[in-house]
Amino acid sequence: MNFNAVAQDAVIPLWPNSVPNQKVSDEQEIDRMENIRWVRNVQNPVIEVYLPSKAINTKRAVLLFPGGGYQGLAYNWEGVDFAKTFNAKGVAGIVVKYRLPISKSISEKQYEVPLQDAQRAIRIVRSKAKEWEIDPEKIGIMGFSAGGHLASSLGVHYDVEVYPYQDEADKFSARPNSMALIYPVISMQSATTHGGSRESLLGKNPSEELISRFSSEKQVNMSTPPTFLLHAMDNEAVPVENSTLFFEALRKNKIPTTSHIYPTGGHGFALALDHPLLKNWVVMYLDWLNTF
């Protein structure tokens, strides 16, 4: 089935040779349309690149990390749909099909696998900036739900070595110039986290060291990128405290931050085109992005 009315400009594998932390498995990637398009059991992580027309190109780019509880990826809903929306505004949209830590093909340290793919993805984009007519200092990231956790992890752990050197792309920085976290899982602390995302990433009985390491609100420092936060107070899946705790950590470290907390919207609203309060949030985000 052709899921995309507009074809992507490029599909690039993240790893040129062997994929780190991956062993031979009989597991097959699943990509099917249910209520939305879900991708599961990712075996060959890639980036799908959607570039704007030259006439309206702002030379900005945003890497998109779909959510799905670290068990799947809501691939169109929180990925391709946004890439196309951004293209219409002159922004390159790059969807990251990242590996999921619950995969049977993961050989060790399953909690590092999504971050490995995230770091590698932004380095590849920076290495291709000239070819794709992107300003390498205007590369942002956006993550949703568990993808928001991955995006925040990249924002606070961009300089942590989690995989061995691959090629010339790894000479580029993995630091995003900005990040947008949309109804994100931020904390792995039991009182705040989304239990399914935590168990998928860290396992059933994680150590306190791992919990702290992957609680992004505890890892913020003065080099953390400027951040855009969006959450709804009635989100019963991922408590709004994930965003408010992160906001407070950003404020303490004097990181330029915009936070939008809405009374309604629940979880997983994506573009929210039918919601009376949230329907214009992408416009607000793009206005904010243009300031960096």
UniProtKB/TrEMBL annotation:
Record carries keyword Hydrolase: yes
Keywords: Hydrolase
Gene3D superfamilies associated with the record: alpha/beta hydrolase
MF-aspect GO terms: hydrolase activity
Keyword Hydrolase attached: yes
Domain BD-FAE-like, residue spans: 48-250
Sequence intervals crossing the membrane: none
Name of the protein in question: Alpha/beta hydrolase
